[in-house]
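> @MW can you paste both from yesterday?
MW: sure, first one:
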Amino acid sequence: MLSETWEDQYRRMHRQYDLLKRTADQNKFEEIHEMPRARDILYHFCCDAFHLRDWILNADGLSQNIKDAVEKFVPKGNPNPPSLALAICADIANGFKHLNLTHPKVYTPGGPAEVVEHTQGSTFPRTFPHHFSANHWKIRTRVTGVEYNALDIAKDAVDAWDAWLPNNGLPLPT
């Protein structure tokens, strides 16, 4: 894979997160504000955040302790996952891959989590100039019906990785 490493996957996740934030920026208008493109960016962010786990699991040169720790960090079927945001990203990534999650074990408690609403519009407070093409998403757990803002989940997922990596002896890639 072009000699890429888990560090490259980490950087990819951050690039997608930056794009995702730009899709919700009401003070800029770009091609990424188009709803299909913005939705792609959300789905790809969730995949990149979730798959960082696999990149670490399959990385050469990392200890078995780190690999065991990352499996516990994003576990399937845990009623109290260490990172709810990463559990939600995992369900969205798998739902995006398969269209529907039908297996009994999902990542999100009360899940699976799924994107249920995508709207565009301006929010308050507003600064000028602004436009009405900023993207917003709701994520809901299928069983419990708990709703989340997708941008909050994305921020929490990035923050979770940014805390987990150094806590497990892996420096944050620059």
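MW: second:
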Amino acid sequence: MAIAKPNPRNLSLAIGLAIAILAIDQTSKYAVVQHMNLREIGDIAVAPFVDFRMAWNTGFNFGLLGSDSTTARWILVGFTALLGLGVLCASMWVRHALHIAGLGIAAGGALGNMIDRVYYGAVADFLNVSCCGIENPWSFNVADIAIFAGFGLLFWPTSRATGDVAA
């Protein structure tokens, strides 16, 4: 099997999507954390199953390996920056537009959470979904949704006959 040649147009598409996700993520965090003052209020009921509930994540998903250490913070900033840039670069070798989009969306989410670590010292999570008497202890944000959805698109079945990006 031959290795595909890198396609810089793929990178342009992925970067464009990453910038869009980054803008949506950072705008939502600014609106909720700063403008709505969720940092001080802590919890705002939005809909029957959705609350804005402030949580500061110093670790990976769901606070895994969380630490208040400055060194750990900057290690995560560096790791996330490399991961986001690596995912964007990987888009140059992907052939299907849906997969390119997934990489761009995931990279935008990763870079959005990286900005939080630089600016706040932790990732600003604020969306909480609880239902039917079951209290969900975790909050998440738009960047987390983008990471999950973006990588999910990589597993979406594709046909070689449709959606391939011209080399």
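> thanks! The first helix runs from residue 8 to 35.
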